[in-house]
Amino acid sequence: MDLPPFNELRAKGWHKLPEPKTPHIMLENFRADPETHKLHTPSGKIEIYSERIASFGYNDCPGHPSWIEPVEWLGRANEGQIHLISNQPKNKLHSQLDHGPLSQKSRIAGYEPALLNPEDAGARGIEQHNIIKVYNERGASLCVAVISEDIRAGVIQISTGAWLDTEGDTGLCRKGNPNVLSLDKGTSKLAQGPIAHSCLVDIELAEINQLRKKC
Q1: Which of 144, 133, 135, 115 is nearest to 180 (CA)?
Q2: Domains plus CATH for the chain?
Q3: What's the mean pLDDT in 159-186?
Q4: pLDDT tens across 110-132, in order?
Q5: Where are the alpha helices (DSSP H) in 33-184?
Q6: Separation of alpha carbons 172 and 183, rounded Å
């Protein structure tokens, strides 16, 4: 791939890569000749059912695709609880560069934005850019409400990556880190991936809103 020198790229600000001469086809060689180009599976084929995984006997990871109810989800939420989605941020790499200007610029009054549906905000007396407390039995975090129809009712979205800033022994993060709210549990005994998208929280107006009004 022919790329320009870095100084030239910096001066111009962008570079368009040429379109590939041929389309990229997933597993192209295997599809053309599955006997010659076997996959790195016990059978050499695409396995919908895995005897090897099934042999582990994991109750949370059978050998075939199946629905397993999450530990926390809206299907069994208590009244008032909503589902937290903690996505990867677009203004930093995980928590790297959180102190950089791009990350700090996206904050509102110094707080991490939390996307909230108007229905959920209205039911709790929350107005645009109010500081809210997002909490559950594991911890709490302060964020700024960004009310939008871009997110469905019953869901709140807070990006990961804010550096932890706790207040004494209360477990309250003043910077909007959602990790204090999510469960410390892997996706399964086999995968051990994060389950940050399976988390229930409550939200309310933070007391700091009253302090700001008095000021």
Answers
A1: 135
A2: 74-214 (2.40.40.20)
A3: 89
A4: 999 999 999 999 999 999 999 99
A5: 51-55, 101-105, 118-123
A6: 16
